[in-house]
Amino acid sequence: MKQLINSLFLMFLALVAVPVTYAQDDDISTEVETDPLEKKKSKSAKKGKELAAIPALLSNATFLTKKKPNLKAKYYGFIRSASWCVPCQVFVPQLLKDYSKMKGSKLELILLGQEDKAVVQKYMKEHGYKIPGAMPADIGDIPGLSYPNLGFPSMCIVDADGNFVAASGGVNMQKWKEQIKEYQAEQRKQKSKAAREAASAE
Asked: Number of folded domains in the chain?
């Protein structure tokens, strides 16, 4: 009789404990918020190697032309340019003359449309801009993208992880190589400092 009571008691505990466990798991899953950027990273990871922040955003973006960006670039230059902007028609073509050199330096250029989609597509076609073009809303929030006190045209450079590298306008956009070198030098300096601090802490 004792054995029967013990068996019934254990069955009762099993029936009560199992739903409680599942309820706890459900609560955990509803509380955890997923970063949209992480979702895009995991999406790209299914296709192969996980992409860095900027390539992950670009891999899911909609582009205005058939030209797609290089997702293996080390740096990305986002250009603001518009059809009504006269300086844009002077400085952007000058910048694009160096495009092949940029690609060799692992810098990929992308034009961010500032007008109606159809206007931007027409503008790019008429000027023969052979770079990817996209509307900002079709890419999403780009980490590190900043245009402090800059008008048109202007370019903001970020690295593949979304860290801000440099921003410039007009003729200064052509100083992209020096800007990247300065950024790389600063990165090396910071790494060296961190290594020294870590060594002294030991």
From this structure: 1
